[in-house]
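Ticket #4471: structure export looks truncated?
Reporter: QA, pipeline team
Priority: medium

Steps to reproduce: submit the single chain below to the structure queue and open the exported record.
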Amino acid sequence: MKISKRQPAAAYSEAGIKLADRTLVIGNLARWSAEGRMVVPFEDVHFIDLCNLTEELLEAFDPDLILSPLFAGGFDVLDVAQRLVALGYQGRYRAISDNMPDVAMILKEVRTQAEGLDFDLLSLPPPCQK
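Actual output as written to the record:
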């Protein structure tokens, strides 16, 4: 999907559905960089380590959507969800995994541990085989 230059950059799904105007991606930035993934912030998308998730950051950036891996080196979805609730975040939080274990169990656990958080899981398709 081509985005008009007059529109702000935004996160879009494969179907071209707008997901968010401002997206915050939480992860292990050192690991992602070592894997060759892009972690440089660009308009309306910011990448941070979990330790940098603060009330001040949330107020300044005001994300519409927060993404993180389900499991990462040093933290998991519960760590992020509980921190977001403690910081008073009211937006959407989605965890991403390409190896989705028991979805219902994860949803129940996160929603119990982080009551009131708008949480769901996003499953990535398996990597393309060359």
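Status: closed, not a bug. The export was complete when the record was re-opened. Leaving a note from the reviewer for reference: The first strand starts at residue 11 and ends at 12.
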